[in-house]
Amino acid sequence: MRRRVILGLACAIACVALGAAAAFETRATRLQAIKTVGIVSAIGEEMSLTQAGLIGLGNSGQSVSISAWSLDELIVQQATRLLSGRFRVQPVSYRRAAFAAIRDSAVAPVNLLRSDPFKELVRSDVAPQGLDAYIVITRAKSKLGNGRMVEGVGLAQYRTLLADYGLIHALYEVRVIEGKSFDVIEKRAAAPLDNTGTMRLAGPSGPVDETFEGPASSERLRAAIADLITRSLPVTLGDMHLIDSQ
Fold first, then answer.
1. Range of the domain at 120
2. Closest CA relative to residue 41, chosen from 155, 110, 118
3. Considering 12, 21, 60, 159, which has the largest number of Cβ atoms within 10 A of its Cβ?
């Protein structure tokens, strides 16, 4: 009896491994077939201001417009430069607000069985149609401290009995959507750049410096957020096998 159970488990594990290998091979084959891509970015129109920990009780958080920072334009430029070594990148038009309005991340495990909400938007809102694939870059979420969720671009403060901590974040996820079937070939949330900080998020972030206080803080914040994006984007695209790993 015990032997049959062990054999059954071994067969199940083997089937899972074979299925994963087949899925990887299919994904790799579909990525190899891509020649032309368009890039959609919708993460950078607003910045969240979040307080958590002892100062977070009853605080709903705020957001401010940062459309003047042109972060999405920066992302498209950076992604175009990185991807042009392998693909023919063509400019596309789209309603950025429509992509930014989707707040529920399909990358999260709870959403894996749902239809990806960005598929229909690519079909209906992106022009021109007919490219081999579309690279869609949108906000991602992460849990901060006592469980409060933060997403996209933001500035967070977390207070304990002993100290205050602050960090900036640029949380995003990347999808490769096939241009004819509109299937999601690959999707991945950008990983942390390092894990050495006291307060950590599951995505690109960094500690807040005291130089963010004062009249010039907006420009320093913009530069710091842009640095997070510029350093993390090649790593993320490399992890997705869209470019050579950096």
1. 35-239
2. 118
3. 159
